[in-house]
Amino acid sequence: MPVIAIHQSQYIPWFPYLKKIALSDIFVVMDNVQFQKNGVQNRNKIRNYDGDFWLTIPVTGHIDDLILDKKIAEDHWRQKHWRSISASYSKAPYWHLYKEHLENLYKRDYTTLHQVNKCFLEFLLEALSLDTKIIYLSELQVAGTKSELVLSICKEVNATTYLSGLGGKTYLQGNDFNDAQIAIEYIESATPRYPQFHGSFISDLSILDMLFNVTQAVIKGFLQE
Fold first, then answer.
1. pLDDT at position 209
2. Which of 167, 172, 169 has its CA nearest to residue 189?
3. Which of 50, 53, 55, 84 is deepest in the core (most CB within 10 A)?
């Protein structure tokens, strides 16, 4: 009985994003929705000894561009991001497990944000041994906005349970889901505390920080809690 979660495309997303994937049978990536300026579709945080900071992919185009069509403005971001990640984590305990694969991702050529986010999501799924089925919203024949769209997606993939963040309580129409015999489960978006070799714990970083600091077994435990 499929459990589904839905979220917008993100660049090197944070832990709660991956937890939604881990708890789902099907994860729908919203790629054909409007790009959100100053969101996390093209940026996320890592840290060094001085604190946390953003890695941002420069994009260009119009305010109403879809994520799927959002063009990358220039190519230097790949080298900048790789240098920042290397400088921050090359001495982290599990850096060696992911260094080569991650470096190869930053050597690829990309023209759209969608290409980047898709490649890095595939890397994270492999790194965490997650076999959740990934579907992109652009592949589905659905329509609507907010609660109507979510319900339409759930019906399209024959979901019996929809996993939502707590923010869904403000717009999901529970009666419509009940009528469709689809349960809604709300989960809190929270990053568990874990050892960070840089020092005092900083929350809400890209999942990369956790990958480099603790074992895969520890992360898998966090994902299933």
1. 98
2. 167
3. 55
| C-beta of residue 34 within 8 angstroms of C-beta of residue 208 | no
One-letter-per-residue 3-state SS of 27-54: EEEECCCECCCCCCCCEEEEEECCEEEE
Strand segments, DSSP code E, in the chain are 3-8, 26-30, 43-48, 51-56, 59-60, 71-72, 133-136, 161-165, 183-187
Write the pLDDT tens digit of every residue in 60-92: 999 899 999 999 999 999 999 999 999 999 999
Tell me the C-alpha distance between 102 and 100, whole Å.
Answer: 5
Q: Is 135 helix (H, G, I), strand (E, B) or coil?
A: strand
Instruction: Report the percentage of the chain scoring pLDDT > 70.
Output: 100
Regarding beta strands 71-72 and 59-60, do their DSSP bridges make them parallel or antiparallel, or are they unpaired?
antiparallel
Phi/psi for 206 (5° steps) reads -55, 150
Read off the amino acid at residue 108: R
Q: Residue 178 pLDDT more than 90?
A: yes
Assess whether pLDDT exceeds 90 at residue 225.
Answer: no
The pLDDT score that the predictor gives to residue 143 is 86
Distances (CA, A) of 214 to 94, 209, 222: 7, 9, 11
- What's the pLDDT at 144? 86
Mutual angle of helices 113-127 and 95-107, in 10-degree steps = 160
Instruction: Quote the DSSP letter at residue 72.
Output: E
Q: Do residues 42 and 56 make contact, with C-beta atoms less than 8 angstroms apart? A: yes
Q: Tell me which residue of 223, 212, 184 sits closest to 96, measured CA to CA.
A: 212
